[in-house]
Amino acid sequence: MTTMTDTSNAARFREFKMPDVGEGLTEAEILKWYVQPGDTVTDGQVVCEVETAKAAVELPIPFDGVVHELRFPEGTTVDVGQVIIAVDVAPGSGDPVAEEPAAAPAPEAAPAAPAEEPKGRQPVLVGYGVAESSTKRRARKGAETAPPAAAPAAVQAELNGQGTAAVPEARPLAKPPVRKLAKDLGIDLATVTPTGVGGVITREDVHAAATPAEPVAPAAPPVVAEAEAPVQQGARETRIPVKGVRKAIAQAMVGSAFTAPHVTEFVTVDVTRTMKLVAELKEDKDMAGVRVNPLLVIAKALLVAIKRNPEVNAVWDEANQEIVQKHYVNLGIAAATPRGLIVPNIKDAHDLTLPQLAASLGELVATARDGRTSPAAMAGGTVTITNVGVFGVDTGTPILNPGESAILAVGAIKLQPWVHKGKVKPRQVTTLALSFDHRLIDGELGSKFLADIAAILEQPKRLITWA
Length: 467
Prior knowledge:
The chain is of the alpha+beta class and 467 residues long. Helices cover 23% and strands 23% of the residues.
């Protein structure tokens, strides 16, 4: 077969390779194909969703044409640089080569290797620069279950779990996390009745569609092929593959815990005045349209405390045996998502006004919950806040986010008896925990920093007097 190697037809086909959508990532898992062989695509159109070790992102195709071949089915982990889709950029010209693969019944008739495209620089996602093209392909994981050069009809059959290719249909409207949930539960979104605004399928819609089947087929991790059977009914344990974001988190936490010598200090503080300030800010016209909560004031207090103790905002450079002090604050906020814990950060948070900080916090949280946090949003953090109080937990001993030297845990704010002006009164109280890298933050510096945060939350007017 001469699909990709025939000189007369080579110019008709362009290959789109898996780009490095993060910072030096080597692989990504294909979560969802949004196109099928025979579909027309345009420059910038999203063709698939992939999950890297940092986040789930959508990949746009950088040229126009008709989809000729999908190289990998959903659920396959693909190395960066491998061709994932071939596109006929000159449909209708020459022989109808795009139809040849479907007519080849024998596996050995499939192309032995992808065509070499002109070497150069290939555009990828906005914000991540460009990647060098490469014609060399490494052996990929799961090769025995998903041949990289399968014919379009065969690939489409794998994508649909059927023996024949499916007819393209209108794609149901749903956000990426909802699509991932549906895939995990084995729900076809085309069969789900949407209740969201504009006909968008919500998580509740997917759960509702899955309810009748739950007693028979419990939710299982995504599978690459039918050969990977789901968990059997009555099994006493469930095995979930560790990959993607969760795998990266595990590796990062182990590296952080056993590289940086952690020290954690605690302080319990009366935040009654802070809670009154939060209530007043909610009524302030200058804060209209943004979410105001205790985390906003705590974040601002931390920024002011860093200004008073700038040595905290630093990192240990082991390779060069240096302490690198940062003159900017990229404030990380730990966020629990369906894909695991992530820590996106607010760039240059130290320069933001209170309304701007509130808007940035709201956008960060909403983006994380929707599963749209980009790798760039999680890079370059300098200090982090983790709010365990939302779970009713008093406090904890947080592990440093890799590349940072301090993390503040905020506990639940509860009404407790407290000695105030010589009398025991009910007051709003919380416990703060600060973990820091003892190589560059000694006990005195860490204690002063934590004490400053507590002092601001006890007397919020210090946000003005200390700023």
